[in-house]
Q: What sequence folds into this?
C-alpha cells in the first residue's frame, strides 16, 4: 500500500460512524425543499473501501425521501472513487480527490464518470467538507434542460455515534 | 398502485430481515471458493422500494470478501428493477420479473441492462428462489474471455431475524 493511499485511508477513517443533520434542496426547475438526513460510513476490514448509506426525509412531514448507498474506494495513487445506487434506480460512478485544509479538516471532491438509468442527468458533482464532528456537503448536477452545473443539495451533519 | 405492483410488493415483503448462509464461487477462469454470507432487505416506508445489502467472507479464513448494496424497485406493471453498487466499484442495473411457484414460494429473475465501471464484464444474471425462510440464489455472468453466460455464484441463506 502506498503512503498516499495510507494517508487517505487514515483521513477517511474519521468518517466511520453515523451522522445526522439537515439540508435543503434547490434547482432551477423545482420548488425548494428542506430535509432531515442520516448517513453512515463503515470500513471494509480487508480492503481500502468504505460503505456509505444515506436516508433523507421531509423535514416537516417526516416522510422518507431519498435513499442511497455505495462505496468509496481509495486507490493506490490516493485518488478516490465513489460508486452508488439510489432508490430511484440511478447508479453513479464518480472520481475524486482528497485535499487537506489548513485548519485540520479535509475536503473530498467528486465528478461523475458514469451515470446510468436516469436519462435526465448529464453530470453530477459532490463536495464533502469534514471538520472534526461536522460534515457539510454540496451536490451539484446538470440536466438536459439545465445544462450548466447547478447546486441541487446542501446539508450539514453532525457525528452522532 | 396497480394490483400487480401490490401483489409483487407483498411477495417481496417476506424478504425483509437478515439472512445468513453459505455459498460457493466457480468460473472457468478461477479456482473454486467457498464463502459465508449475510444479506439484509429493508423496505422504504413510502416507496415501492427495498434496500439490499450483502457481505461475504471466506468460509475458512473469515476474511471479508464481496460487499454490495442496492435497491429493488417494484414497477407499476409488476416488473422489478435491481440496481446495485459493489465494493470493487462496479455498478449494475438489472431488469427482472417475479414468478409464483406451485409450492407457495417465488422466484425473481434478473438480467443486466447496464453494467458500469468493470470492463471485463459483458452480461450478468441473477435468480433468487424464496421459499419460506430459505433463500437460494445463482449469479451468472459472461465476460470478454468467457462469452457464454456461466454460473459464478450460488448460495443458500436462512432468515435469522
A:
Amino acid at each position: 500500500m502506498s503512503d498516499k493511499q495510507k494517508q487517505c485511508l487514515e483521513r477517511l477513517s474519521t468518517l466511520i460512524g453515523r451522522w445526522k443533520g439537515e439540508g435543503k434542496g434547490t434547482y432551477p426547475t423545482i420548488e425548494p425543499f428542506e430535509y432531515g438526513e442520516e448517513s453512515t460510513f463503515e470500513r471494509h476490514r480487508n480492503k481500502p473501501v468504505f460503505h456509505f448509506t444515506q436516508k433523507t426525509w421531509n423535514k416537516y412531514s417526516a416522510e422518507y425521501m431519498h435513499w442511497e448507498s455505495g462505496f468509496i474506494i481509495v486507490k493506490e495513487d490516493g485518488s478516490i472513487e465513489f460508486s452508488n445506487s439510489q432508490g430511484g434506480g440511478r447508479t453513479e460512478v464518480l472520481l475524486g480527490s482528497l485535499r487537506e485544509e489548513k485548519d485540520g479538516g479535509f475536503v473530498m471532491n467528486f465528478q461523475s464518470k458514469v451515470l446510468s438509468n436516469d436519462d435526465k442527468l448529464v453530470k453530477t458533482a459532490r463536495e464533502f467538507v469534514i471538520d472534526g464532528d461536522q460534515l457539510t456537503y454540496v451536490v451539484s448536477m446538470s440536466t438536459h434542460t439545465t445544462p450548466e452545473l447547478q447546486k441541487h443539495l446542501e446539508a450539514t451533519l453532525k457525528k452522532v455515534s
Observations:
- The mean pLDDT of chain A is 97.
- The first strand of chain A starts at residue 17 and ends at 25.
- Chain A touches chain B at residues 44-47, 49, 51, 53, 63-65, 67, 69-71, 73, 81, 83-93, 113-114, 116-117 (CB under 8 Å).
